[in-house]
Amino acid sequence: MTDEQVLDRRARRTRQALKSALVSLILDKGFDSVTIMDIAARADYNRGTFYKHFVSKEDLLKEIHDEFLHGIAELLVEPYEGLERIEASMTYPSGLRLFEHIEQHKDVFLALSRVERGKLAMDMYDRLRESMRKDMHIEMEPTEPPIDYEIMLSYRMSATVGVIMHWAEVDFKYTASYMAQQLMVLVETKMDYIVFKRNGGT
User: Fold this and answer.
1) CB–CB of 94/80 below 8 Å?
2) Each residue's pLDDT tens digit, 41-65
3) DSSP state, residue 90
4) Contacts 24+ apart (CB under 8 A), 137-142
5) Which one of 68, 95, 97, 195 is least enclosed by Cβ atoms within 10 Å?
6) Which of 102, 99, 105, 125 has its CA nearest to residue 181?
7) How confident is the model over 150-186, as pLDDT tens digits?
8) Which three-class secondary structure state does DSSP give residue 87?
């Protein structure tokens, strides 16, 4: 291994330690209360090391945010590399990867949610919808009236993000596999009828 490779690996390790430190501090006491000294100390570095890699804690937070969203977008198409098309019933692998990514980065998700509140959900929606536009096309069964493709895409991505946010609200008590299965069933199942409880329905 060359000296340059050693330095690059060391830099990646340092940056990752600083990211992990900020995430844990946000969960402990909130973003606004965190200082650069707090981050450096939690990562077992000094302020000078922090400033070699990041301009500010906001700069560090942005990198954490961007990496998390990049992972989400990539996972949608990763299971189908080399395939030209699949049946709609075969989308479970991408849903599973999506929920597994969030499960594996749960602390990052929770930290970003606390700092950015509704912005994270909107950013996930935008990233998922853009990935769907760029990397695949959904062929729908003919309907009357015809379904507007952009409305359909927005509906599906909103539903996906809504399910993710509910999962967080119940403290991730279900497995990633269960959530992926539920999302597939929800998207593919048509409603039967609606009972109005206030009017005597059960």
Assistant:
1) yes
2) 999 999 999 999 999 999 999 999 9
3) G
4) 138/88
5) 195
6) 99
7) 998 899 899 999 999 999 999 999 999 999 999 988 8
8) coil
> How many Cα neighbours within 13 Å face the side chain of 195?
4
The amino acid at residue 14 is T
Cα dist. 36→20, 43, 109 in Å?
13, 11, 21
Amino acid occupying residue 109? F
The pTM (predicted TM-score) of the whole model is 0.84
Q: Which residue is listed with tokens 């340092």?
A: 14
Q: How far apart are the first and last CA of the chain?
A: 69
Angle, helix 106-116 to helix 57-77, in steps of 10 degrees: 120
